[in-house]
Protein: NTF2 fold immunity protein domain-containing protein
Amino acid sequence: MEYTLKEIRNMKTAHETLAEFIQKMKDYELYWGGLTQKSLDEGTFFEIDEDENSKKRSDEIKKIHQQFLSKKALSLRQARQEAPDFGMPPEYNQTITAERKISDKKYEIDVLSDREGKKTYTLVLEGGEWKIDQMGFMYYDKWKKSRQLF
Structure:
């Protein structure tokens, strides 16, 4: 697919797309983690898995995933959509450390996380937008890639 100069100028970069995804996921974790922590601090009972809250969390994750994940990644069951969770401290407290252009339609971007070390996101160009296609990570001293862990 060819893009016009105007489309190219208005297109977010792969870096910008991933940075926005990371921020939205971090905001999600901070919001739900904050509600849970406040409940614990006040001694009130906030039921995070109550039907209404569970649906809100699930809907919010689905919206983020629809905006940022590739068609291939969306075609698979996403662990966080099945059981919407969040990290305390946030799992998505990640810093972009490097990026590599693999082709005009594919980038790899490395991030460093406080909790989990290095991860590599692969972004692909779909319909004029950068989408997150997979994530690479260390698992028992082996490098693994997955489309289901967002």
User: Anything to note?
Assistant: The chain has one domain: 12-146. The longest strand covers residues 129-139. The chain has a mean pLDDT of 81.
